Structure formats: C-alpha cells, structure tokens
C-alpha cells in the first residue's frame, strides 16, 4: 500500500514534467530493488516514509547542503552526522573523507537506524561509526516521538501532537568524545534534529571551543526550537560568542549568502514556521582557505 502511494506520487509529478531521465531511472531502480544509486553509492530508502522517500527519488546531489559538504569536507577529515536518518549525508561524507577519514553518525530511531546500517554495509564503508543514540546536553533516557509518514520529523520533544514514542539513549557529544581513545579531532558537524539543536550544542561546548577550524551545517527553525523550550536567539548568540559567522546554504550554489542573526530572527519566526540550513565557520578559517 505504501509503495503504491509512492509510485502514484512519483508518476503524477513526473507527468507534469518535473522529473528528468536520471530521476526516472532512479525511480525504476527503487521499484525493482528498493534502493537508488547516487554517485556510485547504493542508498536504500524507507518505503514507509511518504515525505522523505519521494523527495530523495527526485533530488540530485546538488542541494545547498550537498554543495556545502563537497566544498568543506576534505580527505582525512572527521565528520559528525547528528540526526543521520537513513544516511543520505553519512554516505556522502564517507565518500568525501576517504579511507583516512572518519564519519560518526547518530540516529536514535530503531527502524531508521536499521536502514542506516544497511546503507553503510552495502557500500563497504570501513570509515563510518554508527551510534543508535540521540544527542542532548546530558546522559539520559528520552522518548523519541515518531512521525509515521515523515521519518525525518522524529523528535526528542513532545509537541503535543499525540505521537507514538520509543525510549532511546541520549548523551552529550562531549561526554562521548571524552570516552574515545585516541581522542577525536572534529572537522565538520551536521545537525538536523527538529528543534533539539539547542540542547545538542550545549552538549558540544568543549568540541566547538577546541577546534577553531570546525565547520557546522545546522538547521535553524525557530518554530521547532520554541516548541522545544529553547530560545532561537540564544542558539545564534551562542555561536556568535564562539566566533562563528553564518551563511545561508539553501541557495544551491556558491557563493553562499552571508546572514546575520538579526536578519535570521526577523525573517524566520515561530509564527511563520520558516526554516533555513546554515553553514557556520569562523573568520580565521576563511583566511586560511582563501
């Protein structure tokens, strides 16, 4: 039933000319094998996800986030993927860092994590560490509230929409990093967690302060942050205090547009529900790369 709905959606959009030949071949591949081939990697999709799966069938590797990862992740880097979902960005990061690099991916949902494991295994990645955990600001057991038809919208906060939940382990990234031997040097962090970004960065203070060249790809959604009990301005101010500047990476191409906290808070409000993906890096890092 779910697969049939996805088929109907793909064909209906396809008939109005949205899809190109490459997208159509990916759809056929998915119908036959449940996976798509992207830049030489196999990615299994979630047939239960009626939002994410049609989107991934349609997009190429040319979104703003894809461009950001390709631009700023280098061979040998260590990348942290927080809210890895089925591994769309985990797979790309694993390709970019190469054999000398490392990707650590956090995904708490058991069903989604199983697909993430499959996507790492089928591509033979030896440079990926998978953690079935949520990140927060302390070690705890939390409820993960599940979005049945949009698995990318799972949340560790209850927004009052009567979702089913599962209990998951949560911890701070700094706590996790201190447990590793040898210690990590972190180069790039991606965070997309439906409003949990505030508590996650509270649990990464040591990491952000230790590595001046670290870059961050983070979703900024004031509506979700507010519902999670976190002040949107506080998140931006915290990064500014740590010396980061902001770029809007939803523009699909370089150069990304610079953004200020005042501009972001004016354009994106809890009332209008808008969100943006931001790239964060420090000015000294720009000079080193120019």
Characterise this structure.
This protein has 290 residues and is of the alpha/beta class. It folds into two domains: 2-58, no CATH class; 64-289, Vaccinia Virus protein VP39 (Rossmann fold), CATH 3.40.50.150. Helix content is 39%, strand content 21%. It contains 13 helices and 13 strands. The longest helix has 14 residues, at 2-15. It is globular, with a radius of gyration of 19 Å. The termini are far apart. Residues 14-19 have low confidence and may be disordered.
The general outline is: globular
What integer value in Å does the Rg equal?
19 Å
End-to-end distance, in Å? 52 Å
At CATH level 2, the architecture of the largest domain is 3-Layer(aba) Sandwich
Q: What is the helix fraction of residues, given as a range?
A: 25-40%
Strand order of the largest sheet: 5-4-3-9-10-13-11-12
Look up the CATH topology of the largest domain. Answer: Rossmann fold
Helix and strand layout, with pairings?
Layout: H1 2-15, H2 21-33, E1 35-38, E2 41-44, H3 52-58, H4 64-72, E3 78-82, H5 88-97, E4 102-106, H6 110-122, E5 128-131, E6 134-135, E7 140-145, E8 165-171, H7 173-178, E9 188-191, H8 197-202, H9 205-210, E10 215-220, H10 222-227, H11 232-241, E11 245-248, E12 257-259, H12 261-267, E13 276-281, H13 283-289
Parallel strand pairs: 3-4, 3-9, 4-5, 6-8, 9-10
Antiparallel strand pairs: 1-2, 7-8, 10-13, 11-12, 11-13
């Amino acid at each position: 039933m779910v697969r049939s709905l996805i088929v109907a959606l793909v064909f209906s959009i396809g008939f109005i000319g949205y899809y190109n030949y490459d997208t159509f071949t990916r759809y056929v591949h998915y119908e036959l094998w449940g996976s798509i081939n992207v830049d030489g990697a196999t990615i299994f999709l979630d047939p239960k996800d009626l939002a994410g799966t049609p989107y991934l069938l349609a997009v190429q590797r040319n979104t703003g986030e894809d461009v950001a990862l390709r631009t700023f992740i280098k061979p040998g880097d260590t990348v942290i993927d927080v809210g890895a979902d089925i591994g769309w960005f985990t797979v790309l990061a694993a390709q970019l860092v190469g054999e000398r690099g490392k990707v650590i991916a956090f995904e708490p949902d058991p069903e989604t994590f199983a697909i993430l494991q499959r996507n790492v295994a089928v591509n033979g990645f030896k440079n990926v560490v998978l953690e079935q955990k949520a990140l927060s600001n302390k070690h705890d057991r939390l409820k993960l509230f599940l979005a049945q038809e949009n698995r990318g919208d799972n949340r560790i906060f209850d927004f009052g929409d009567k979702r089913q939940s599962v209990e998951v382990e949560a911890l701070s990234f700094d706590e996790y990093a201190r447990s590793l031997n040898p210690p990590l040097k972190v180069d790039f962090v991606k965070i997309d967690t439906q409003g949990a970004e505030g508590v996650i960065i509270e649990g990464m203070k040591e990491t952000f302060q230790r590595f001046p060249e670290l870059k961050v790809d983070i979703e900024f959604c004031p509506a979700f942050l507010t519902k999670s009990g976190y002040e949107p301005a506080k998140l931006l101010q915290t990064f500014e205090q740590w010396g980061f500047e902001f770029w809007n990476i939803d523009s699909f191409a370089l150069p990304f547009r610079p953004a200020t906290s005042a501009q972001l808070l004016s354009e994106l409000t809890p009332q209008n529900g808008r969100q943006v993906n931001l790239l964060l890096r420090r000015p000294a890092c720009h000079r080193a790369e120019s």
